[in-house]
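Posting for a labmate who doesn't have an account.
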Amino acid sequence: MVRLRDLGLATGRLPPGRWNAITDVAGVRVRHVTLIEGNGPLVPGSGPVRTGLTVVVPHDGDVWMEPVFAGCHRLNGNGELTGLEWIRENGLLGGAIGLTNTHSVGVVRDALVAAAAAIHGQSDVFWSLPVVGETYDGVLNDINGFHVRAEHLHAALSAATSGHVAEGNVGGGTGMICHEFKGGIGTASRVLPEGDGGWTIGVLVQANYGRRDLLRVDGVPVGAAIPTSEVPSARDQADAVSARAAARAATRAARGVGTRADGSIIVIVATDAPLLPHQCTRLAQRPTLGLGRLGSIAANSSGDIFLAFATGNRGLAADDDSLTVDCRMTTDRAITPLFEAAVEATEEAVLNALVAAETMTGRDGITAHRLPHDRLLEVMAAHGRG
């Protein structure tokens, strides 16, 4: 797997953590289940299959019974991230996070409830409102075949680990397209200087948005320099297929799929800083600026939804006899460096998704081509980068 820094490129000024991943935040664990099967024409229910799911576990304790402070933000709302109303209301994330395709949100959500109930369901007052996000992979995948199943969630959850995180065509990002190149899962991190708290920010994205001509890398107009005549666009191919299959085209049009600026992105931000819920909400707004650097315009058909959680306060699940819990708050002076870190990590996470992703052919022979590394380096060098 090749990442942005493997090509000799980098963005921002802050250093990454050991893994340059969301797992640099101590206790955070990630796992993917990737489903790839079949080739040829779309046969709903049979394939081709180009999908999966990704699980993010926020800390190393009992995530179902020990919540952490969290906040969220919607840049454009043509998408889904379940469980956010309760997070907006009480500022707590109480479980693992799932990412998958648009039509598999329900099964992943229900499987997360079942996983929690298997541990704590003996209590007659147990309940769960899991957080599950989606982006649309129907350009490449048999999305109406419902190939993601509960056992895939349970496998990912039980095997979630810290350390290295696979990127590109994996997990929930398997069938995704970003800036009209192959997209998917990406991650990055930043570590603040000790004078700014020494805290770590980690970001994981499921990237499936954007127009090619708008893509910028460290300010360089890379997308405009690599036109579709040079590297064909899967979305243009999908439009051609839809012209021959009016029924499927109408279904996609209802979602906005097939337009040049469509798609979505889910961004998960983690930090070990001691943030309160309103501060998590402020942090969750900052990926917007990282996406703006890349060329996102948050199109009408795009679902751009962000969640931030902070593990710097633990022990927030008070027992039945407790009326208060102690917690700490980062000062306003100290929160600005965290904002910068979140912006930088979001930008690099998307670029890691683009660089790590490989060319993929999905249903009806539609191909999403990877961002060509050689052309990326040529364009960057022509602008004095790299």
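Reply:
Got it, the structure tokens are right above this. The chain has one domain: 4-316+331-382.
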